[in-house]
Structure formats: C-alpha cells, structure tokens
C-alpha cells in the first residue's frame, strides 16, 4: 500500500465536495432576479446581481470546505481511512493465499517435524492476529459510518442554510418593492402644503 494518501479518504473528500456543489447550485441568477426585480431591470443590474451571487457562492463554498476539513482533522479521518485501506488489502491477500493453498487433510502429531510444529504455532498466532485485525476493521467501519452520518448532517445543514438565504432574499426583495412604492420627497412636500392651514 502507498504511504501517501488513501483511496477511501480521497473518495470521501470528493463526496463532501459534490454535496456542497449540489447545494450551491440552488443559488441561481434567476432566483436572484426574482428577489430583486428592481435591480435586475436597472442598467447593469443583472451584472451586479451576478457578481453578488458569485461572492456569496465563493464565501459559502470556502466556509463549508473549511468546516469539512476541520471535522476530518478533528476525527483523524485520513489516518483511519489509510488503516482501513491497509486492513482490506491484507484481508484480500489472505483470502487469495487461502484459495491458492487450499484445505489440508488431517494432521497426526507424531508425524510432524519440528519445523511443522513451529509453523503450526505460527499459524495459530497468525489466526489470532487475523481476528484482531478483523475486529479493528469492524471498529473502523463503524467509525466510518458515524463520519458519513456527520457528513450527511453537514449536507442537511448546508441545505437549511441555502433555504434561509433564499428566504432572506425574498424578504429583502419585498422590502425593496415596498420602498419603491413609497411617495417621493416632492409628493410629500405637495401633500404637506395642501393639508397645512394657510396663515
């Protein structure tokens, strides 16, 4: 096995990035325009909305990536994934050796040579090692399941954040529309002069 990196760790990173990209796709220029029709219809308004959307997406992506990295580092995911890779590789090698060697017939102790006795003890020791490795493999798999649950929870949090951002855009859009419907300063001045008693 390579001393650098881990196939499963790289795959886990790709999964987390893919889930983040899917969440970011929710923020589109069309949704921005529906929230800010006044800005969208203004000269260069769409360009301004596109720039704002890009800034939000970049910030969101950077912040979420840092959060993923912090979780991976806190739980030492890279090391555990490398250990899992090695355990699976060793298990595959043992299975291949067993298939190649095949099963053996009955063993008679009085016919064993000293070397075979030693080999038998070594085989017992290897079997104990195998059982210990299998237990460690099961533990690592359980930890990996917990990590995947954490990633899924982070993905759900990102989705909730996306929904919150959309709601905020909707509220801001409503505020902009309400502001645009208010009377102008000249209209207020005219109204004030009409209702004010003449001296």
Automatic annotation (TrEMBL):
Disordered, as annotated region: 175-199
Signal peptide annotation: none
GO biological process entries: cell division; chromosome segregation
Record InterPro entries: Nnf1, PMF1/Nnf1
Any single GO CC term annotated in Swiss-Prot or TrEMBL for this entry: nucleus
Pfam families recorded: Nnf1 (PF03980)
UniProt feature coiled coil, ranges: 74-157
Record localization: Chromosome, Centromere, Kinetochore; Nucleus
UniProt KW keywords: Cell cycle, Cell division, Centromere, Chromosome, Coiled coil, Kinetochore, Mitosis, Nucleus
Domain of life assignment: Eukaryota
Protein known as: Kinetochore-associated protein
